[in-house]
Design goal:
- The complex is a heterotrimer of chains A (336), B (323) and C (276).
- With 336 residues, chain A is mostly helical.
- Chain A has 2 domains: 72 residues, no CATH class; 241 residues, MetI-like fold (Orthogonal Bundle), CATH 1.10.3720.10.
- Chain A is built from 14 helices and no strands.
- Chain B has an 8-stranded mixed β-sheet, with helices on both faces. A 4-stranded antiparallel β-sheet of chain B has the order 2-1-4-5.
- In chain B, strand 7, helix 7 and strand 8 form a beta-alpha-beta unit.
- The radius of gyration of chain B is 21 Å and the shape is globular.
- The two termini of chain B are 32 Å apart.
- By secondary structure, chain C is an all-alpha fold.
- The radius of gyration of chain C is 22 Å and the shape is elongated.
- Chains in contact: A-B, A-C.
- At the A-B interface, helix 10 and helix 11 of A face helix 2, helix 3 and helix 6 of B.
């Protein structure tokens, strides 16, 4: 069954990605204005415009245009950025790693903080901790994170000036780029000052980005734990004389984790969306900020590339979550 | 007889509910002697499972609590010992199996691990020894190819097999008492007999006592030496199995016997009326509203009356002083 | 009736409703409540802190932030209502169609919904706004489109479970017309989850629209839209944090209100949705 399942999921993934590429292609064609005109400016003469149009393939049928575009994309060619004249794929790759660093950090915070709060709330149901953390979680899911980011900046960077306002690393510090994750690279290079500095830079944006996922994870963990706590097998575990901690972690949380994983997966999408806002606020040189800036500059090749990458990431993450589910739940994994 | 292994005195267990507190077990006395099987009989909701969970101190928290009474196990009051000491008792000296084998095993761990866990906790065995012992236990409860089945997940086994696993788990540390809460109710009839045989056989082998909770007098006949009948949270009759089957005394016990389907009799005789709600039990005897022998005195709580040696009943009908 | 009583007994739902009601009240009586005009600049009073004259201080053009926040409530409530309507109507129709007719129509619709769901919501909204042009109307359209698939999915699954139920099958056998069955029997019975989701969706829509405003893709100056006000406040975060603080707080309270109320609705209307 898992092999069947895997193949079915992959086919579904390909269909979705194909649909995404068609949709993005068509939507970009719907943007008012002539791309050639946009590239050459208002005062270009007609011959130049016609030349560029045929160079860009704009004189061909929509279908042919899509076909050329699809072929290019499949070969990793996402076009050239009109702002920097660097291939978009290259621009995206560097920024993707910055986004990855931020998202991973936020994910780690959300998982640990959210699961811990959810577990304690469930175990101590109706306690003050439970009420407080669930109220905070509700505030968390209602949070305009761009506002939270600004307030954190004001508090920690302006008022108390303990944390940097923007960027990934202070001026004057430099680490070789191996993984593209500055925190990891500085650690690999054994550069302790740079490592601490990069962590300081990471803290506020990661906290901002983690707010909503932490809140969601805490809520779902709590409700899932409460449900599992009443299962017969938890009582069996207690009847064996296992300690409270073992019963909670091994026999309750492990089972309660299944819905949490689903939510974590769904949240990765939310995280990617949140990255757009967080990166803008903290001038984090990632993909989210890049896509917004490209839109402002009407750099459509870049926009198109970014959106394709974001959608691909989302679809792949969902696939990953499905697999994780299979790993976690033997009822799906093992077949008779 | 010598001192009982498990001696419950005046147990009162209450639940707080939205509609106020409810007394699920009301003044239960119960003695389980070493090597004995005692049947705790009654309809569902009569408090027999709650009594068992009270012994294990596994009442659902925070709703349930023991309000009064003593649970003496080898002279120690289990209601007084620390939680840590209680954990050393659970699964080690007193273990328990439950009604629903389908849901009583954790679906994400192999059956082997779930047996191993108890062994490692109580017997301090090495990984290897505990693993080997888990295989032995599966063998003991009659699971074919135990070395292979040890790596199965619960969902790969039938209900009967899972109940065998539960028994293996419960017996892995050679407890002195096993509490079996309706161990066969959820199983097919043929499997029921197998599981009951298994429990009786292992009881001899390990030399433990069994507290068997059931609503089924047929099960009692097959396995128990002593019987205690409960109704609406109170014990109403206790006797040896032989005495109870020959001369049932309490009107409720009589009703239970009458409601057993018999081969020669095609009509069922259920006890008329309904079990009273624990929220508003009548004054005096709880069974009075359904009782064919009701008399004026039933409005007062009936006393325990010994109608023959070691056969006690809680009913005014047998009160010779007043009659 | 019992449902409504339950709802008021649920303290957090009642609190949520109170927050929303407070903001609706503010929006309705804005002109009477606001001490200043929200649009007219007063260059001499720029970037003043909180005081008895200007409760929330003034912005970079000297406008009273308190008054702007009050007028902003109208915009945000309008965004919430209209965006949700834009997702709700097509989403419900698509979900009804997919769920009731099934087959290839179902596959086609739901695959298309999957494709829309493959984009992070805010990104798709940004993209749509960029194509349509940055203004308030297009923000509402964009946020509306982004959440169509959510409603389609919810309605579809509720239609599927209703279709299994006897009474709908019975009506089908009695020869009820498709539209009659859909409109008279299926739609009313799938309303509870739609209502719950729409309430929670108001909060989400307000949040997303404010994000677009913050990125400069939504309402344009001088409109007192909370997101756009925050965007402006960002420039003065070091000098005058209050410019950003109050519009953000307003967003938080409104969204919190919708979420609290929506959670309460879910618990009373449709307990089966509770774990989602």
């Amino acid at each position: 069954m898992p092999i069947d399942y895997l193949i079915r999921r992959l086919v579904h993934l390909l269909i979705i990605l194909f649909g995404v590429s068609v949709l993005v292609f068509l939507m970009l064609r719907m943007i008012p204005g002539d791309p050639a005109q946009l590239l050459l400016g208002e005062f270009a003469n007609p011959e130049e415009l016609a030349g560029l149009r045929s160079q860009l393939g704009l004189d061909k049928s929509l279908f042919t245009q899509y076909w050329i575009y699809l072929k290019n994309v499949l070969q990793g060619d996402l076009g050239i950025s009109i702002r920097t004249e660097i291939p978009v794929a290259q621009e995206i790759f560097v920024r993707l790693l910055a986004t990855l660093e931020l998202s991973l950090a936020a994910m780690v915070i959300a998982t640990f903080l959210g699961v811990a709060a959810g577990v304690i709330s469930a175990v101590k149901q109706y306690s003050i901790f439970d009420y407080a953390s669930m109220f905070l979680a509700l505030v968390g899911v209602s949070m305009p994170i761009f506002w939270l980011g600004l307030m954190l900046i004001y508090l920690f960077s302006v008022k108390f000036s303990v944390l940097p306002m923007m960027g990934r690393l202070s001026m004057g510090l430099d680490v070789p780029s191996w993984s593209g994750l500055v925190v990891v690279d500085s650690l690999l290079a054994g550069n302790v000052p740079a490592f601490l500095d990069s962590l300081k830079h990471l803290l506020l944006p990661a906290l901002t980005l983690a707010t909503i996922p932490t809140a969601i994870v805490a809520r779902i963990t709590r409700s899932s734990m409460l449900e599992i706590q009443n299962q017969d097998y938890v009582r069996t575990a207690r009847a064996k004389g296992l300690s409270n901690l073992v019963v909670i972690l091994r026999h309750t949380l492990r089972n309660a984790f299944l819905p949490v994983v689903t939510v974590l997966g769904l949240n990765l999408g939310l995280l990617l969306g949140g990255a757009v806002l967080t990166e803008t606020i903290f001038s984090w040189p990632g993909l989210g900020r890049y896509v917004v800036n490209s839109l402002m500059a009407r750099d459509y090749a870049a926009v198109q590339g970014c959106i394709l990458i974001f959608a691909t990431l989302m679809v792949m993450i969902n696939l990953l979550v499905d697999f994780l589910y299979v790993v976690l739940d033997p009822r799906i994994r093992v077949h008779d | 007889m010598n001192t009982p292994l498990l001696n419950i005195q005046g147990l009162v267990t209450q639940f707080s509910t939205r509609r106020g507190p409810v007394t699920a077990v009301d003044g239960l006395d119960l003695q389980l002697h070493s090597g004995q099987t005692l049947g705790l009989v009654g309809e569902s909701g009569c408090g027999k499972s709650v009594a068992a969970l009270s012994i294990m101190r596994l009442l659902p928290k925070p709703a349930g609590r023991v309000a009064k009474g003593r649970i003496l196990f080898e002279g120690r009051d289990l209601l007084e010992v620390s939680e840590a000491d209680m954990r050393r008792v659970r699964g080690n000296e007193i273990s328990m199996i439950f009604q629903e084998p389908m849901t009583s095993l954790n679906p994400v761990y192999t059956v082997g691990f779930q047996i191993y866990e108890a062994l490692q906790k109580h017997r301090k065995l090495s990984r290897r020894q505990a693993g080997q012992e888990a295989v032995n236990m599966l063998q003991l409860v009659g699971i074919p190819e135990p070395a292979a089945r040890i790596n199965d997940y619960p969902h790969q086994m039938s209900g009967g097999m899972r109940q065998r696993v539960m028994i293996a788990m419960a017996l892995s540390c050679r407890p002195k008492v096993m509490i079996a809460d309706e161990p066969t109710t959820a199983l097919d009839v043929t499997i029921q007999a197998q599981i009951l045989d298994l429990i009786s056989r292992l009881k001899q082998e390990i030399g433990m006592s069994v507290l068997l909770i059931t609503h089924d007098l047929g099960v009692v006949a097959e396995t128990c030496q002593q019987v205690l009948v409960m109704y609406a949270g109170r014990a109403v009759e206790k006797a040896s199995a032989v005495d109870l089957f020959e001369k049932p005394a309490h009107p409720y016990t009589l009703g239970l016997f009458a409601s057993i389907p018999k081969v020669e009799d095609e009509i069922l005789h259920p006890i008329s009326g309904v079990v009273p709600s624990l929220y508003d039990l009548p004054e005096g005897c709880a069974f009075q509203d359904r009782c064919a022998y009701r008399q004026a005195q039933c409005l007062k709580r009936p006393p325990w009356i010994e109608i023959s040696p070691e056969h006690w009943v809680c009913c005014w009908r047998y009160d010779t002083h007043h009659a | 009736m019992e449902t409504i009583q339950d709802l008021f007994r649920n303290k957090s739902a009642a609190f949520g409703l109170m927050l929303v009601a407070l903001i609706v009240f503010t929006a309705l009586f804005g002109p009477m409540l606001a001490p200043y005009d929200p649009l007219i600049p007063a260059p001499l009073d720029r970037l003043q802190g909180m005081s008895r004259v200007h409760f929330f201080g003034t912005d970079s053009l000297g406008r009273d932030i308190f008054s702007r926040v009050i007028f902003g409530s109208r915009i945000s409530l309008m965004i919430g209502g209209i965006s949700v309507a834009i997702s709700l109507v097509p989403g419900t129709l698509l979900g009804l169609t997919a769920g009731y007719f099934g087959g290839w129509l179902d596959s086609l619709i739901m695959r298309f919904m999957d494709i829309l769901l493959a984009f992070p919501a805010i990104l798709l909204a940004i993209f749509i706004t960029a194509i349509l042009g940055p203004n308030l109307t297009n923000t509402m359209i964009a946020v509306g489109i982004v959440y169509i698939p959510h409603y389609a999915r919810i309605v579809r699954s509720s239609v599927l479970s209703l279709k299994q139920q006897l009474f709908v099958q019975a009506i089908g056998h009695l020869g009820g017309s498709t539209f009659r069955i859909l409109g008279k029997h299926i739609l009313p019975n799938s309303l509870p989850p739609i209502i719950v989701y729409a309430t929670l969706g108001m909060g989400t829509a307000v949040l997303q629209a404010a994000a677009l405003g913050f990125l400069g893709l939504g309402a344009q100056p001088p409109q007192p839209e909370w997101g756009a006000m925050l965007s402006e406040g960002r420039k003065y975060i070091q000098l005058a944090p209050h410019v950003a603080a109050f519009p953000g707080l307003a967003i938080l309270l409104l969204v919190l209100g919708f979420n609290l109320f929506g959670d309460g609705l879910r618990d009373t209307l449709d307990p089966s949705l509770r774990s989602q």
